[in-house]
Design goal:
With 60 residues, the chain is mostly beta strands. It is 8% helix and 25% strand. It has a two-stranded antiparallel ribbon. Strands 3-4 form a two-stranded antiparallel ribbon. Bound molecules: zinc ion.
């Protein structure tokens, strides 16, 4: 039984998020839309071009 492999599923330095286009988790999410106060919509690199561009807070 590899319990450690289950606990190590989410590396702290690696943000994973579901893609808004294909719905799959991606290890390299691209921020495509920010919905105040704290919701961010991501797309995977392959699908980001298919997403309608929205307001993205890159200043912070
Ligand atoms: Zn995708």
């Amino acid at each position: 039984m590899m319990l450690e492999s289950l606990l190590a599923d989410a590396p702290p330095d690696c943000l994973r998020a579901p893609c808004c286009v294909c719905g799959r988790d991606t290890a390299a999410p691209v921020e495509v839309r920010h919905i105040p106060p704290d919701t961010v919509v991501y797309a995977c690199p392959q699908d980001v071009v298919a997403c309608a561009p929205g307001p993205v807070a890159h200043e912070a």
